[in-house]
Amino acid sequence: MPKKRKRRKRSSSLYTKGQLNTLADNLLHPLIQKHKELRIIDEMAHIVIEGDLRESLIKFLRFTLPQIVRELLSDDSSE
């Protein structure tokens, strides 16, 4: 007796989470270089895309916060 194949449910989204994250990065990262405060909007966009506040917070603490601290320290040393 042949096995029945399970049909995969199609995603209702046009883009994958990875594609949406890349799109957000491509739009916002060039602007962040000129206006550092836009990093907040970038982080909020990633939280919305991921849909998981806990995971987004962990990623923020692991990747983005150290970068922000480095930028702040380098700004202080240049003054």
The total count of strands amounts to 0
Estimated share of beta-strand residues: under 5%
Which class of secondary structure composition applies to the elements? mainly alpha
Number of helices: 3
Shape: elongated
Straight-line N-to-C gap: 76 Å
The tally of structural domains comes to: 1
C-alpha-based Rg, rounded: 18 Å
User: Low-confidence spans: pLDDT under 50, at least 5 residues?
Assistant: none
Oligomer: single chain
Largest sheet: none
Could you estimate the helical fraction of the residues in percent?
over 70%
Give the integer mean of the pLDDT values.
86
Compressed to H and E, one letter per element, the order equals: HHH
Note down, in words, how this protein is organized.
With 79 residues, this protein is mainly α. It has one domain (17-78). It has helices at residues 17-34, 39-50, 53-78. The longest helix is centred in the last third of the chain and has 26 residues, at 53-78.
SSE arrangement:
Blueprint: H1 17-34, H2 39-50, H3 53-78
